[in-house]
Design brief:
The chain has nine helices and nine strands. By secondary structure, the protein is α/β, with parallel strands linked by helices. It is globular and about 55 Å long. The structure holds guanosine-5'-diphosphate (GDP) and magnesium ion.
Length: 299
């Protein structure tokens, strides 16, 4: 009889390498938000992938980088903690970009890791096929990678092979989560991330990543299938609040509409979404606010 294998996997890599895209590709649904701007993923996201013979629990870490604020420090800490306790570390690179300073910094941090480190060469859809093998040979020189796996997180190319390879490295273990569980984050967290994604999408450069979203209310009406959600978007300056609200409240309405549509898909029910905007000066450095909005170094 085949044994059941299970274990923890973390994905590290510089912002924009495609970590969240891979998670969503594996689960075939959206649990991690994606953006073409760096540093979108703040909290770690646990994604659970279960087959008949194995269970893989993924931790999508925020990018490891030189911290500039307390939030930055927190993000680094989460990333390092994740790396220490896992069975496999996936180090992700964009195949279409040269190895940069940021990548070398992360590799340096990974030197002492006990777990096998895989190099995931992502975005192979962006380079000619003939360049893949020479790239693999080149990266073999950089670090003692246990495996080098070329994939496209976007198209799904190579992802099944990656999952099979990971499973070979996992120890025999229990099924930690029941079959239907794909993430251990509460729905409210995913909802707040979806709203934050729409803010970043629609405001482009005007609203920096200092934006946070808190869910104040999430409840199903007794007499119908409608879910009521109230959320607060937090920015650092009055000028940012004005941008978010927009002329005659147009921006806020647009954010609300896009977010609501996705939340309705997620929950499978009609949603009544109310959004508020609040200015908290310099919130990134305020521990208390960080804690209130779920940014805790340990859980
Ligand atoms: P993260 O910061 O590492 O989590 O990166 P994201 O998953 O948010 O992806 C950053 C950007 O790269 C997004 O615009 C993705 O659509 C894009 N991306 C991710 N994987 C691929 C891929 O395999 N091919 C291509 N062409 N783009 C990708
Ligand atoms: Mg991400």
């Amino acid at each position: 009889m085949e044994i059941f294998r299970s274990g923890f996997i973390t994905i590290v890599g510089r912002p924009n390498s495609g970590k969240s895209t891979l998670i969503n590709q594996i689960l075939k649904q959206k649990v991690a938000i994606i953006s073409d701007k760096p540093q979108t993923t703040r909290n770690r996201i646990q994604a659970v992938y279960t087959t008949d013979h194995a269970q893989l629990i993924f931790i999508d870490t925020p990018g490891i980088h030189k911290p500039k604020s307390r939030l930055g420090e927190y993000m680094n800490e989460v990333a390092y903690q994740a790396v220490r306790h896992v069975d496999v570390v996936l180090f992700m690179l964009s195949a279409n970009e040269p190895l940069g300073k940021g990548d070398r910094y992360i590799l340096k941090q990974l030197e002492g890791t006990k777990a096998p480190v895989f190099l995931i060469l992502n975005k192979i859809d962006l380079i000619p096929k003939l360049e893949i093998l020479p790239l693999i040979d080149r990266y073999k020189e950089e670090f003692p990678f246990a495996e080098i796996v070329p994939i496209s997180a976007l198209t799904g190319d190579g992802v099944d092979e990656l999952l099979e390879t990971i499973i070979r490295y996992l120890p025999e273990g229990p099924k930690y989560y029941p079959d239907h569980v794909v993430t251990d984050h509460p729905e409210s967290f995913i909802i707040s991330e979806l709203i934050r994604e729409k803010v970043l999408l629609l405001t482009r450069e005007e609203i920096p990543h200092s934006v946070a979203v808190g869910i104040d209310q999430l409840s199903k009406r007794e007499d119908s299938e409608i879910v009521d959600i109230q959320a607060t978007i937090i920015v650092e300056r009055q000028s940012q609040k004005r941008i978010l609200i927009g002329k005659g409240g147009r921006m806020m309405k647009q954010i609300g509409t896009l977010a609501r549509q996705e939340i309705e898909q997620l929950l499978g029910s009609k949603v009544y979404l109310e959004l508020w905007v609040k200015v908290i000066k310099d919130w990134r450095n305020k521990q208390q606010v960080l804690a209130e909005y779920g940014y805790r170094p340990t859980e």
